[in-house]
Amino acid sequence: MSRYRWNLLPPIPHQYLVSNSGIPPLIVQLMFNRGVKEPAQLASFLAGDINLSSSPLLLPDMQQAIARIYQALLSGEPIAIYGDYDADGITATALLVQGLSALGGTVIPYIPHRLTEGYGLKTAALENLRQQGIGLVVTVDCGITSLSEVKQARKMGLDIVITDHHTPLPEIPPAVAIVNPKLAGSAYPFTELTGAGVAFKLIQAFYQSIGREEPLEELIDLAALGTVADMSPLLGENRYLVKEGLMVMNHSPRLGIRALIEQAGLSGGNLDSECISWTIAPRLNAAGRLEHAMSSYKLLMTNSPVEARRLARWLEQKNTERQKLTASTLAQAREQVLSRGISPLLLAGDKDYFIGIAGLVASRLAEEFYRPAVVIKIGEKVSIGSCRSIPEFNIIAALKESQHLLSQFGGHSQAAGFTLPTQNLPRFEETLLDLATTQLRGVDLCPSLDIDAEVTLPGLGGDTFQITQQLAPFGRGNPVPTYLSRRVEVIDCRTMGNGGEHLRLKLRQDGTRWDGVAFRQGGCLADVAPSLDIVYNLEIDRWQGKETLRLNILDFAPTGQSSKSNLKDRL
After folding, report:
1. Does pLDDT of 267 surpass 90?
2. 398: helix, coil or strand?
3. The domain over range 5-10+448-570 is classified in CATH as 3.40.50.2000
């Protein structure tokens, strides 16, 4: 039986194919599936160039933000950049510090400690910055929900410019300016910029306003890192930022990124968005998860090869520690979930949970059980939690309905965090569970797998892979193309990896042979039949200096037995 509900996307209308006859039909189908349908959009998407970018002056309050920063630069007033401790916040902080320092500004970074301070603006930190002579604080990747903190900052004579991309509350902070594409009334056409993306647009606007050439190459790599790390859709302007940023990282990476690439064993010059997602971003995040994110910031900003190598080695060690801690905590949380019984919303909490990896554990639980998951570090007086959800349940909306029980919260529909008095925890858990039970009643809680096209294995030959690479960089919103092939003969199948975690298959169809790997499906060996329907991506297997094209098998079922699929009407 398949593990997913298979959703074969409908074929493109004939007239649409005719109107785009100059483009390979498979590419037209793939872009149609991603919502790119007009001929002009297709050309722009494939180019992935600056035409996907909009004027930064369309962002809310951009003129006010520029005016206040310009005033600080002219008077020599020191500016603090207040960022978040995740990869998006770290890269956004580095981007603004580097961009404004290049104009002669006195700019200092401030990134709060995840464990001792927590997320977002903190009054104690703002008071400390004021005592250091700071008159202007520019936030990145945070601040939009910091109502009381901004009010306190005004009382102490501190000006706040907020740049953020998170969803605003009905009441917004009384800042000098709020630059956020999600703000009500925003004229900016693309709402999915990350914290680093918004920071990039601020620098872009500032440089344009003073008639200076935009520092794209020096800063766009940071915007790309933050965008991919924060799992923002790689469509629209994000596509441009990531595509350009990857070019910079592949041709002339900054010292810190080069050191990280070497330390992680990546192949320089071949970085793609997956390298950021699976290798670079976790290492940048490891510092903030276990200790202080400033080490990752310093890696991005250093001009010393020696310091870059030292920091890259340190981050590698921290990432290894993070992996071990995540595995042990996941085992404990999973046991908690199973002991309670699988409910519409999964809850796990303990006084010994490490908050720095709570989001990772919640993500793994949500992935395994396909339920929204909440993992909580229970304190004596205050508890802190991280949430990860599924498309069928908006977790930030659920937190808004519970906000009378919370001290602070923020995030997105699929990922969020909160703090609350521990005494409120029972009522909070009950409220969340009731909301999930009501909203998910009658929903088949099985993950779906969108399939771009049905093909035969012989049809994948030639330049299919090279053609589809025109759609890169891939990521959320623009996934790696996924295919379905039916009645594929299995020549050989065996387990591989530690403890037989994966499956290695040799497949044949109409005389054409392919190698395939089904990662983390070693336990499904008994389900492998002589003839399979398979869902897969194409990928390059790089091993011992050789590159081989193979099938990355996402799911399979004995031919004709994928009963959880949405394919019946097409059979």
Report:
1. no
2. helix
3. no
